[in-house]
């Protein structure tokens, strides 16, 4: 099981370190859009939508990495003052009772929309936009899978630590 956790960690680490470059690309594309519009009077709906696609890919596909490096949003009013064992138990309960069911529900409820989008190869959001909304929607189940796998990898470690303690 620990080997499984290490493989998931490695995959999400690679994704996070690779996808971080999308942030720079997103800034450069947005800068080019602004310069094109206000300096040269040129506008492109597809270029504007590409920023949306880059943003979606960055945040949805790197969420597992964010969970791995423990940089996700945490409301820790009491958590920080608790013992390591108490925090570990809260983390186990949070993964089992909140995160994993939320990912399952999001996957379950989004799948029909993603499936239908692929069935018709759903076109652009706006006229003249990128003809790949089906790819954008596919980020939702990919997000669910990556976060679920990372959550399971974390759970393997937390449960192992709980039994070792």
Q: Which structural class is indicated by helix and strand composition?
A: mainly alpha
Q: Report the strand count.
A: 0
* Count of the domains: 1
What's the overall average pLDDT, rounded? Answer: 95
Helix content: over 70%
Shape: elongated
- N-to-C span: 18 Å
- Count of separate DSSP helical elements: 6
Beta-strand percentage range: under 5%
Q: H/E series, N to C?
A: HHHHHH
Rg estimate, integer Å:
20 Å
The oligomeric state is single chain
| Poorly predicted tracts of residues | none
- Please give the largest β-sheet: none
Function: Part of the tripartite ATP-independent periplasmic (TRAP) transport system.
Transmembrane segments: 21-40, 52-69, 90-111
Organism: Notoacmeibacter marinus
Domain Tripartite ATP-independent periplasmic transporters DctQ component: 26-159
Structural topology:
Layout: H1 2-19, H2 21-38, H3 45-61, H4 63-68, H5 84-120, H6 133-164
Helix pairs in contact: 1-6, 2-3, 3-6, 5-6
